[in-house]
Structure formats: structure tokens, C-alpha cells
Write a structure and sequence with these properties.
The structure is a homodimer of 708-residue chains. By secondary structure, chain A is an alpha/beta fold. In chain A, the strands form 4 sheets. A 4-stranded mixed β-sheet of chain A has the order 3-11-10-9. In chain A, strands 4-5-6 form a 3-stranded mixed β-sheet. The interface between A and B is large, with 82 and 82 residues. Chains A, B: Keywords: Chloride, Ion transport, Membrane, Transmembrane, Transmembrane helix, Transport.
Chain lengths: 708, 708
């Protein structure tokens, strides 16, 4: 292991190494080397395909487990406790009543209505607490990194952060199991982000079987990027969304076509596997099918849609703010010491509150699926949502549900359980969207002759406003406000709903929400968590340097830990590597820059050459053209420790350009020189600091990601 | 104008300038400067929105014009010649026969069947020649840059190539008009690529109204990128596809979120405008609606789909090869001197051949729309395609049509008319896909009990194989083989067909085609044309340097045109700028690098300071820290001519890394130094040369894009 956990890899160096290996193999024109090249490539594809299949199967298995656990909270199957409600009642003729499925009160044969509901609700709450508590216990005891969503860490890892403990098989197991328990407990969380983490753990596990990935941090990360695409693909049933999510949100490799390719393949295979197993017997990828109420929409609808966008932006920012405050409070209060108790309490409160309101009692996915549907007499009425006389009650209930879910989500996201933010956000947005939709519809039916509504069909029995579709827009806007994703969000949403004809309104909603949200606070929720945990991640944002130049941000010459060429002895260098954890040291002669020696190379040189005789020898570094010149008796040639791929700039360069270079080239450091003299140095950590300067809580949750 | 047409802009320099301007405005805390910042941003959005609306309207108008001209080849409306067939026959009760529309033989009252068909076919061919000839004449006489698709040039321009003549209002007009004529003439070409060009011309035209874009080549390009997205959006009715096309195919700005944003907005607005005008009264964005034959597909279908992928890859490569050969032949033969005659002849041949085969007689878009449809007794039979007894005849006809279209397309793409390659490629692929689909279906119905087909429903009246959908896959595969696009292609295709549930098979088709195609030849058709015209465009491909280092590719110190600090006089510098067209000159003292002076800055210095007295003064260049030191009597301070944003590397750096830097940072040059001494320099032109080394016909169509 060349890198410790917590350090950052040097991309240029890693890629140079990989190219060297590649070239070495290709230059030997033997059959064996040809086979070896072929085998390398085959192994990559093997891991990609295995990950795709693995995450597809895991996703399907998770769905089944969650469904079973969730149903268990309400009753059991007479045929056997391992059937869920749907499979228990399958095989019936239409119209036949399912008698095999018993609620708990039926099972215990309780007749009194009061006792019935008491028993039902207490089992409901107890099992919720039990599931959530177990999840928290598992996470706390066996795999602390399995908590939370995992997306911030994946972003940091793909950017070069070394965090192998985050990807162990043990984390994989606990995250998958804990996720199923946490989702089934009815906590306000989703499975989407954690599934991406699980996919990455899988890819990492498969990659450990082959030596070639152990040596290459860059190759490993390219595999992880493909795995992340597969994870999104399974989480949302959105193979294309997975690829574009990788491009937009994890855009470390945007330019490298082979990475996109692997993501494409992994994503497709994962979706095919999921569809093949078909956990719910629908043989559909589309999770929340929207019954499209006609492809047309009217100009006046832009008003409610823009409103939804604004609401999404404001509430999204509020959710982020609330979540940050709660996370800080949790960290600094007594809660920090009782994570399992916290989870149990919150799950009890969630279950108790949820049981009261009809829209929060069901699982979020079921709620969302129903909110996205239009009212259709043939389909039956979902909890009275389509009852036009109960309009105000419905709007009130929906808004209450949204408020409850918002607070619960802000609290839940960050507790000691695996928890995604996507689904709860969709649920909040869908409630609000539906409420706005119902309102708009009722205004339109009340004043059908108003000039605003003249574009509606004159026949009052034909629906003009489709509240179900407003739900979709509300969900899009809320997601836009919370995650600040754009294109990938639109793609995911319309793969999720199948509402292809409505891509324009979804775009409008997401755009407005992002604008409003950005005005209220620059970062999405993932970036906020990255900053709070201080991972060395450089977000792909435009950096406004306010006219500052590199010299204002760099560590100046005087503050740098340097190797003096021709003066430092091998002993000095040993001391240097022991006292400083830096990734490397500039080598200078006086003030002239000679090169940059990486700690890694220095250590391997020391392990070979350090002895009592060599300890006092002076270190020399030559350029290749001087290589033949001899070293004196008391000197040692350390030229091999110099790094070739080092960038030099002048210190008058604008900071914005320096940041761009770090963003685009994944640099680890830049040296600033003028006429061959070293002026200073800027590392990835410095750039991360510059970019996080506006955020007040940087590192508030522990400085986990020191860059060395 | 700072840059001549044909040169390449220096992105780092341009962006630095822009930041400076920005900063200057922001640092003045007056209301006026605040307003000015606001106005700058408002102007950008104004141009983006105007372009979106403009291209939406232009696209709709084009559709109407093409439809009218196309119908004119078959007959005329009694109500007036300016009605097309659909609007002429609108307002009829169902079942009523349209008498207002007359074929030409009806109009001229010809009764004999032989004379009828003779008249019809001769008018058909004559008008085709007339339309195509007019288009060619217009292009040839008024706007030679309006020929071809325009995508290669747009790619080059977005990459930094300066080519303002390509974007004039005159080109806009001729391209739009010529495109309508060319499409209506029935030549084997599409409107998609040219529409992107038209959109860019519009953005350029609108941007000329504001001073702020005149000064900034970078800002101008960011506008063009958004316009290109809008163009794709209108061309395919695919707003999301437009944005992703920009990301993948024109990925110069992938990281810059504001560019993506503007693309997003322009794209959405263009699609809304198009939908609002609704040229065909369908109020749909989806052009080739697929009647989804059930969401399920069977495992055995992977075999024909993979076959289609392979066919697409092979035929795509063949089409590219054929197109290149024809382009070279055209260039080097007598054809070069008679472009209009060539167009007229080819259009006559196209019309004559097309008239013979039923599938080629109609416009390609109509053919594709029908091939994409499943057979449905209620819809009627399209040219006997659904007749199961005529299976072999249909397969034969479809393959013949594909072959004819392939040859005609290879010839047409590159003639002196606006011509896109997308639609013809889709048509070729759709024909082949439908043929394969019909074959698969007939095998399945012939052997329903074979183990391969056991997954099909047992009821023989239920369709198991959907040949219409095979058409879509065939089209995807063919497009993948010709353009080598991936993700954006999939998005465009499924926005085009609405076949969301079939995104996985489309992905399989595109993937296979790209793999097979890449094995046969690395470049897509656009990149081949870029190379043939030698535009300074750096394709975002992985470059394999075979172990070479930067020193192997750079211009070494001895070959560089340099300024000797303290020795060169102002007169020398004047001679330098007159004899060399280079973008800039390294400044050295002996062998030590002082900096890099751009020609642009030198010229402005010369224009201010050159006189007979100063002509013999020596030029000095100082760093900022020495700025206060005085210049001697016979010396001049040219420090202001130095460029700050210059990258230095060591010449031992691998070439692959250097190429990556050029790709990701849009560099213009890199200097190679060691211990302050200049070793050499590498410019964009050198990198383009490296990347095109494998292509034998680089610059074969004229060295239009010399990088200075």
C-alpha cells in the first residue's frame, strides 16, 4: 500500500505509472505479453460485468427484503411467515378476497376495535424501533462507515481521496443489510445513495481478486466510477441516468471515453439483471409510471410550475440548512455518545407520527407512486385524494405531510443508519406539487371562463389540469433544490416516471429551483457534507478569485520544507520523511528549483541505500542530460526520486486559472517559478481550502480528510 | 479583430482577460458598475433566449417549406398553390375524399395512364433537379461555407478555431434556404447538422448587437455552444439530447456549469417555440413515435440485436471510407470545377432511382416514421410491409433501398449543398433493422416450438417479435457506426422515438456498433472531415504515446523563433512580427527562459512606441519584483508584453500527459524548461499533428486551418 487512508493520490503520477506498465507490455512483442495485455483488459471487463450483475441482484434482493419486513409490521401470511402480502395473496381469481394474509389483530384473534388498533399500532411502532435499532447497532458495532448516504465519500474517493476502509466487504454487508432494515423501519430515508455505495464496495471487492488493480489507484477509481453508474441505474431503474449522473456529479473522468464506456456497460447490465429478476413481477424498469394525461399542456401552467420551482429552491436550501444545524448539534451534544438510542427514538417518533397521518403511514415509495398518478375513476380513489369535495382537507394533509417529512428527513439524514436523501426529497416535493396541482385544478374548475384558462378544452368533463403531473414537477424542483444537480436529475426523473413528453416542464422546475437555491446558498447537500467532513474534494464550480493571483494563496518559498541539493545528506532526508507527512518535497539549490521528489520514492530509496556509511553522504539530483557526469566520493545520486510530471507556473497567474487546473487535471500540486527560481507551492489541500472559504462549518464534523 | 480567420484563440489568455474585465467592474462599488454587471449578464441571457426562439421558429418554418416544396413535386392545391397537401385537404369529414388536391396529371387533365406516369415522373425529376441546382447555385455564388453539415466546423470553432466567415448572416440565410431546397429535392440528406450551423449563425448574429461579445472570443464561443444545443433540440425534437450532445460531442466546456446552463435553457426554449408553432398540428415533440408493442422483450432477441450492432459498425465504417474516397476523388478530378452540375446530376440520378423503388420514393423522414411503426391492422398496411406472404420481397426491397441510400449518401455528403448525415443514416439503419426484424419474426412464427422461442407467448396471434422496434435498433446501430457518439445518441434516439422502455436494447445496439466500428477505424465521420480539412481541433480521445516523451514531439530550442532579452532591438521585433505569423515568441536570455511574449501584445506595443529613435533600443523584460529597477538609456521596458498564464513542464513528461493537458485546458502552447533553461515548445498545431498521425488523408481537402 503506497497511500495511507486519508491521503490523496497523485493522479499524474499514477497515470504515468500505468502508461509505463502498459508500454512495457506492449513493447515486448511476444505472445505472452500480448496475452497479458488482453488479460488485463478482460479482467477490467470481468469486474465491470460482475459488478453490474451483482448490484442488479442485490438491488432486487433488497426490494424483496424491504417489502417483506415492511409487511411484517402489519401482519403475517398464514402460509408461512416468509411470504410478503403480495406473494401471500397471489394466485387469486379477480374479485376473490385474500384470506391468507392476516393482520396481527386477526392473528391474535382480537375482536374489540380499540384493542385491535392499539395492538396494530404498537406492533407497528415496536417493529420500527427494532428494525432501526438493529440497523444502527450493526453499523455502530461492525462498520461505522456504512452510515449515511455514501455519495460524498464516493465523490471524494473518485477525486483521489484514499479511503479503502470505506469499501471493505464488511461495509458492503452491513450497509446492504442495515439499509433494508432502515428502509423497512419506515424512517424518512431512501435506498438510492446507499445503493451507489454498495455498488462501489462490490467493485472494490471484485477488484481485489486481481493483482493489477492493487497497484493502480487510478484503475481502481475508474472501476468505481463505473460501479457508481450501475448503482444509480439500479436505484432508480434508470440506466441512462446512471451514466449521466457519473458525468455530471462525479465528473472526474468526463473526458475519458473508456470510463464512460464502462459506466454505460455496467449500468446497462445492472438494469438488465434487475429487470430479469423482476422482484415485483411487473417486468418494468419504470418505477413510478406516470399515467400521462395527454401530451399537451397550457401556457398558464407555467405560473404554478415556476411557483413550484421557487418553493423547491427555498425549501431545498432550508432542508440543507436544517440538516447542517442538526448535524452540528448532534456532534456537539450528548447525542454524540448514544447514536443507537438516537436512532431508536427517532424511529419511534417517526412511526408514531407517521401512523397518525394517512399519507405518511405508507412507505414513501408507495406514497410517491400514488401521488404521481392522475385521478381515474377506474383505478379507485387513493385515500380520498380524488374526492373534489375534500379539496381543502387534502391540501392541508399534503402540506402537513410535507412539513413532517421535511423535519424528519433533516434529522434522519446523518444518523447512524444507512440513509439516502433522494426518496424522502421526492416525497416532500410530490406532496407539495400535488397540493399546488389540486389548488390550480380547483381554481380552474371554479372559474373556467377566466381569460387565463381559455386555452382549456371547453368541455368541463375533460381534465385540463393534471395534479398528478404537478407532483412530478414538485418532486423535480425539490430534488433540484436539495442536490443542485441538473441534467442528470432530469434524465433520472423521466426515466423514473416515463413522462417523456413532459421533459420540458421538468426542466423548467429543476432550473428554477436551482437558480433560487443557488441564490440562497451555493452548495448542494452532498458538497456541504464533503465540506463538513473536510474531504479533499475539489468541486467543479466556477471559482471567483476577486482579482487575486496565485501568490496570494501559495505557500511561499520560506515556508516550504525543502531538500537542498548538494547540501542535505541522506540522514537529513530520513529525518525529513519522518517528521513530515507531505506527499513530496521540492528540491532546490539555493533558490533555484531542481525538481520535486516524492516521499514515496524517497522512502524506497532510503530502504535500499540507507546505512551508517551512506548516512552522511550529500544528495545530488541531476537532469537526464547530465546523468553521465560522475558523482563525487561523498555524494549520492538521487535523480530517480524526482517526479517528471510536475507543473510550473508563474506566481502572477490568476487564482481562478490555478483552481481550473486542479479541477481539470486532478493535480496534486503546482510549483511557482520565475526564471528557474522557486517562488512557492500550492497543493490540493490549499485549493480545497480556497474553495470552502465561504462555508462556515468546514471540518465541523472532524478533519477526516487531511491532505498530506 | 485580434485574431485572423484561420488562427486559434488562446483560451487561457482570453479567460484571463475576461476575468480582469469582470474584476474591474466588480471592484468599482458604484451603482453604475453594478448595473453594468447586471446588464452584461442580461445581454448573455437575451442572446441565448433570442437564439432559442429564433431557431425554434426557423425549424418550424423550414418544416413547412420543405413539406410544401416536397408536395409540389407531386401536384398542386386547387385552393391556391401555396397550400401543401395536408392543409389543402384539412377540414374534411372522416371518410370524405379530398378533391382539392390534384396531381399534376389531374391538373393537366391527362387521362392515359402511360402519359400520366410519364408526366408525373418527369415533373418529379425536373423539380428535384431544379431545387437541388438552385440550392447549389445559391451556396456556390453567395455563401460557400454554407455547404455540408457544419458540425466539423462548429466543433473546431468551439475548440478555439477562429472562423468568423462561417457564421455570417449571409451564410445563415443561404444555409436555411438552401437546406429547405436540398431536402425538398429528395437528395439523400438530412436537416439536422445544418440546423445546428444555422443556430450558431443566429447566436453569432444576435451577439454582434452587443459590444461585449466583440471583445471576447471565449464568451462568443460559450454562446455558440448553447446555440448548438438549441439546434440539436429543434432538429430532433430532443431538448435533453441537445444538452448532452453538447457535453459529449462538443465537450470543450464540460466542466463549466454556466455553459451547460445556457445550453439547457436555449434547448428548452427552442423546443417550446417549435412545439408552440406546431407546424404539423400534432402538438408533439416526438417525431417518430414508436407504437410500443409491449414493454417486454425476450433473451433470444439479443442475437438479432447484436447482429444489427455488428452490421451498423461495419456499414458505418464502410460509409465513412466511401465518403472519404469520394471526397478525395471530387477534389482531385474535374468534378471540382463543376460543383453545381454535380449536384444537378446527382439529384437527377437520385430522383430517377428513388422513383423506381417504393421505399425510396417518399421523403426519408416519412419512410423512417413508417418503418418504426409496428404492423397494426387498424392502421393499414404501409406499402405492403405487413403482408406476411410478401416476406422475401419486402426483405429484398428493404436491403436494396438501404444499399441505394448508402451509396447516394456517401456521395451527397460533401457536395455543394447543405447536407446532414443523420437522417439518411437513420433511414439506412431502419431499412436494415426492419429487414432483420421481419426475418426474425418469420423464423419465430415458422418454428414457434423451438427452444429459442419458448419465452414467446404460446398464443400465436400475440406478436412476439416487433419488427418496427428492430428498425429503431438498426437505426441506432448505424448512427453509432457513422458518428461514434454514444450517450447523446441514445438520448436523442429515445427522445426521437419515445421508446423509453426500450432504452436498453438501443444501448446494446449503439455499444456494439461503436466497438465494431472502432476496431475498423478510429474516427467518426465528423472527425474524419475535421482531419481532412485540417482544422486545429484536438479530439477528446485517449492518446497512446507508445512510450514517447514530450521531447520527441516538441520544437527544440534551436528551431524556435525567439526574442533575445537585452539584445534584440525594437526593430528586430518589428521584423519578427512581420516575417512570422506565430501566436507568440519565447523570450530568452542566452538559454534561460524569461517569458513568452504574444504577437498581439508586441504589435500594440510597437504601434505605440516604434519610431526612428526607439528602433535601435534594446528590449528588456523584467519580472514584477524587479519592476522598479531602471532601464538604461538605450533600453526599453517590454515587460507588459509578457503573458502570465504560461505553463512550464519538463521535457521528460510523457506525451500522453501533454496531450491530456491540451485537451483539458484548451492550451495554445506549453514551454519545456529545466532549471530555468528553455528546452523547447509544443503548440496546439503540433498536438493536432500528433493526434492525426494515424489518418492518411490529413489536410487532403486543403489546409484551411493552419495554426499560427
Amino acid at each position: 500500500m503506497k497511500y495511507r487512508d486519508g491521503s490523496s493520490i497523485d493522479w499524474l503520477h499514477e497515470e504515468a505509472l500505468e502508461r509505463e506498465r502498459d508500454h512495457l507490455k506492449k513493447s515486448q512483442k511476444s505472445i505472452r505479453s500480448l496475452l497479458s495485455i488482453w488479460a488485463d483488459s478482460a479482467r477490467v471487463w470481468l469486474v465491470v460485468i460482475a459488478t453490474g450483475i451483482g448490484i442488479g441482484v442485490a438491488g432486487a434482493w433488497l426490494d424483496v427484503l424491504v417489502k417483506w419486513l415492511g409487511d411484517l409490521r402489519e401482519g403475517r401470511c398464514q402460509e408461512g411467515i416468509f411470504y410478503n402480502q403480495v406473494s401471500c395473496c397471489s394466485g387469486l381469481d379477480p374479485g376473490e378476497f385474500c384470506t391468507d394474509w392476516q393482520t396481527w389483530s386477526e392473528y391474535f384473534n382480537i375482536r374489540k376495535i380499540f384493542a385491535q388498533s392499539l395492538l396494530q399500532s404498537s406492533i407497528y411502532v415496536t417493529l420500527a424501533v427494532l428494525f432501526a435499532g438493529t440497523a444502527a447497532f450493526l453499523v455502530n458495532a461492525y462498520a461505522p462507515y456504512a452510515f449515511h448516504t455514501g455519495i460524498p465519500e464516493i465523490k471524494a474517493i473518485l477525486g483521489g481521496y484514499v479511503f479503502d476502509a470505506f469499501l471493505t466487504p464488511w461495509t458492503l454487508l452491513i450497509k446492504a443489510l442495515g439499509l433494508a432494515l432502515a428502509v423497512a423501519s419506515g424512517l424518512s430515508l431512501g435506498k438510492e445513495g446507499p445503493l451507489v455505495h454498495v455498488a462501489c464496495c462490490m467493485a472494490y471487492m471484485f477488484s481485489r481478486f486481481f493483482k493489477q488493480f492493487k497497484h493502480s489507484e487510478a484503475q481502481k477509481r475508474k472501476l468505481l466510477a463505473a460501479a457508481a453508474a450501475a448503482g444509480v441505474s439500479v436505484a432508480f431503474g434508470s440506466p441512462l441516468g446512471g451514466v449521466i449522473f457519473c458525468l455530471e456529479e462525479l465528473d472526474t473522468f468526463a473526458l475519458e471515453s473508456d470510463v464512460m464506456w464502462r459506466g454505460f456497460v455496467a449500468s446497462a447490465i445492472a438494469a438488465v439483471s434487475l429487470q430479469y429478476i423482476d422482484p415485483f413481477g411487473t417486468s418494468k424498469l419504470v418505477l413510478f409510471q406516470v399515467t400521462s394525461g395527454g401530451d399537451t399542456w397550457r401556457a398558464f401552467e407555467l405560473i404554478p410550475w415556476l411557483t413550484l420551482g421557487v418553493i423547491g429552491g427555498v425549501l431545498g436550501s432550508f432542508l440543507i440548512k436544517l440538516n447542517v444545524d442538526i448535524a452540528l448539534y448532534r456532534r456537539n451534544s450528548i447525542l454524540n455518545e448514544y447514536p443507537i438510542l438516537e436512532v431508536a427514538t427517532v424511529s419511534a417518533i417517526t412511526a408514531a407520527i407517521a401512523y397518525l397521518v394517512v399519507f405518511t403511514r405508507v412507505q414513501s415509495s408507495e406514497l410517491v407512486a400514488n401521488l404521481f398518478q392522475e385521478c381515474d375513476p377506474a383505478r379507485g380513489d387513493y385515500h380520498g385524494l380524488c374526492n373534489p369535495t375534500a379539496m381543502w382537507e387534502n391540501v392541508f394533509l399534503l402540506l402537513i405531510s410535507a412539513a413532517i417529512k421535511l423535519v424528519l428527513t433533516a434529522w434522519t439524514f446523518g444518523m447512524m443508519v444507512p440513509a439516502g436523501i433522494f426518496l424522502p426529497t421526492i416525497a416532500i416535493g410530490a406532496c407539495i406539487g400535488r397540493a399546488v396541482g389540486i389548488l390550480t385544478q380547483s381554481i380552474q374548475t371554479a372559474y373556467p371562463k377566466a381569460w387565463l384558462f381559455l386555452s382549456c378544452p371547453p368541455d368541463p368533463t375533460v381534465r385540463c389540469v393534471s395534479p398528478g403531473f404537478y407532483s412530478v414537477i414538485g418532486a423535480s424542483a425539490m430534488l433540484g433544490g436539495v442536490t443542485r444537480m441538473t441534467v442528470s436529475l432530469v434524465v433520472i426523473l423521466f426515466e423514473l416516471t416515463g413522462a417523456l413528453s413532459h421533459v420540458l416542464p421538468i426542466m423548467v422546475g429543476v432550473m428554477t429551483a436551482k437558480w433560487v437555491g443557488d441564490a440562497l446558498g451555493k452548495d448542494g447537500i452532498y458538497n456541504v457534507w464533503i465540506a463538513m467532513r473536510q474531504y479533499p474534494f475539489i468541486p467543479p464550480v466556477d471559482y471567483n478569485d476577486r482579482g487575486k493571483i496565485a501568490a496570494d494563496g501559495m505557500k511561499p518559498f520560506g515556508m516550504l520544507v525543502k531538500i537542498q541539493e548538494g547540501q542535505s545528506t541522506l540522514g537529513d532526508i530520513e529525518t525529513l520523511t519522518k517528521t513530515h507527512e507531505f506527499h513530496g518535497f521540492p528540491v532546490v539549490r539555493g533558490r533555484d528549483l531542481v525538481g520535486y521528489a516524492t516521499r514515496d520514492k524517497l522512502l524506497s530509496f532510503l530502504s535500499l541505500h540507507l546505512s551508517t556509511q551512506t548516512k552522511d553522504k550529500k544528495c545530488r539530483f541531476f537532469s537526464t542530460r547530465q546523468k553521465l557526469s560522475l558523482t563525487a566520493e561523498n555524494e549520492l545520486d538521487l535523480t530517480s526520486c524526482l517526479e517528471n510530471s510536475i507543473l510550473h507556473l508563474r506566481k502572477e497567474v490568476p487564482q481562478a486559472l490555478v483552481v481550473r487546473m486542479f479541477q481539470k487535471m486532478n493535480l496534486h500540486q503546482i510549483l511557482f517559478t520565475y526564471r528557474g527560481q522557486l517562488d512557492g507551492m500550492l497543493t490540493k489541500a490549499d485549493v480545497v481550502g480556497l474553495l470552502n472559504a465561504h462555508f462556515p462549518h468546514t471540518g465541523a464534523l472532524g478533519n477526516q480528510g487531511k491532505v498530506a
